[in-house]
Amino acid sequence: MSFLTRLQNFLFVPWLLGAFSLFAFSVAVPVEAFAEATSAAIARPFFIVRAEPGTQVFRLFGEEKIPVGVVGKDGILDSVAIPSGTHVFIFEHENAQAPCRVDNVKLRGGEVTKLVPELKMRTGELLVSCLPVDVALFVDGELKGQGSLMMGGLPIGQEVTVEARSSVYGVQTRRVKIRAGEMAKVNFDLRGNIPAQKPDGKIVLPDVPLVLALQTGAVVKVDGVISKLTDGALTELPVGPRVVEILLPLKERMIMVWRGAFAARSAIMPGSDLPAVATDIPEQTSPEAAPAADAKSAPAASPAEPAKITGKVAMALSNTRFQIAFNNTQSLKSGAKCRLVVASDLEPLLVRLATVTGSGALAILEKSPEGYVLKEGTAFVLEPTE
Predict the structure, then answer these.
(1) CATH superfamily of domain region 123-189
(2) What is the per-residue DSSP string for 13-66?
(3) Across 276-343, where does the E strand assignment appear?
(4) pLDDT per position as a tens digit, 84-107
(5) What local confidence, expressed as pLDDT, does residue 303 receive?
(6) Secondary structure (DSSP) of 354-382
(7) Which fold has domain 309-384?
(8) DSSP letter, residue 311
(9) Which residue intervals of the chain bear CATH 2.40.10.170?
(10) Which residues pair with 337 in a beta bridge?
(11) CA distance 238 to 357
């Protein structure tokens, strides 16, 4: 081959690769299709590596390691600079347990060869602890646990965002980097934060009740108390199950047109901005209509309290804090101490009702039989002790 011919080939190949690269970029051609077209056009091997970003690729030539390139952020390295023949490749990464060697890789002109090395990457661990123990823990925005958390298999060098979220004590955030041979530790203590003065429970009304609530003169009640609708949501509610009623004026009277049960979620928890799922509550008696002028007055007095107050555990907030729902009307006050009877052969549990509404309460467990765990859905009879 003459010197002029070699010079033409030397100048032609980069020009052709540049033209193909521009074409592939402009029409978003997949890398494999681009490689096949380029390899066929220049009759040279096209070598593609898919591996962890930052992986260094070497070709063995005798005892010498010849650098081929570094895998980019997209996880791909391609090259046409390797001659045809049988080769040995070495793959190295700073976070790999050991280099990976691939023997007898045959490269042929006009063909595409793809390699995916089996690099075993080192991983790290994360340990998170928090006080109080009923605080929710998030890692990179995902709820992972409550109170304490340990995670393994995290990529070395990765930075994670750890959050402790509480509807009472607020939010604390930490950024931590995962390192080889170390357990990243994050400790939160929210007890020094100023407690929230108002509950942060939130209910985003779904389509039907939202349309009704936006009608002229509509009144929305939560657990019998008139509530303000803001941007389609009811806010500053106690977290847990709530009963929502919507009333509309009709001939100078307020008529209930919709009633349903929702779970009010803390505004700092996932899902609080999504429309709530309602369950219709069957009416036992037809509610009496009230004059429109009295729509904002206090709700009517509850009927006489039955001999036994029954209900069930609606939501377990922690091992000692539970949201309970009542089956019948009651006149208990916040702070009341009660016996919670769950079975005839089991010693009653002692609870304190921190927050009482018309349909439920936040119960704090003060004493229970050893080894017994109160679960969601457990039916009970409540007996006031004072």
Answers:
(1) Carboxypeptidase-like, regulatory domain (2.60.40.1120)
(2) HHHHHHHHHHHHHHHT--HHHHHHHHHHHHTS-EEEEE-STT-EEEEEETTEEE
(3) 279-280, 290-291, 309-316, 321-326, 337-341
(4) 999 999 999 988 889 999 999 999
(5) 47
(6) EEE-SSEEEEEEEE--TT----TT-EEEE
(7) Thrombin, subunit H (2.40.10)
(8) E
(9) 309-384
(10) 352
(11) 9
Range(s) of the chain covered by CATH 2.60.40.1120: 123-189
Q: Which two tokens stand for residue 316?
A: 């377990």
CB 233 within 8 A of CB 203: yes
Backbone dihedral angles phi then psi of residue 90, each to the nearest 5 degrees = -120, 135
Percentages of the chain per state (helix, strand, coil), in multiples of 5: 10, 45, 40
Between CA 2 and CA 347 the distance in angstroms is: 101
Structure-token pair, residue 40: 């066929």
CATH of domain 3-115: 2.60.40.10
The string of pLDDT tens digits covering residues 158-198 is 899 999 988 777 888 999 999 887 889 999 888 777 666 67
Q: Where in the chain is the domain with CATH 2.60.40.10?
A: 3-115
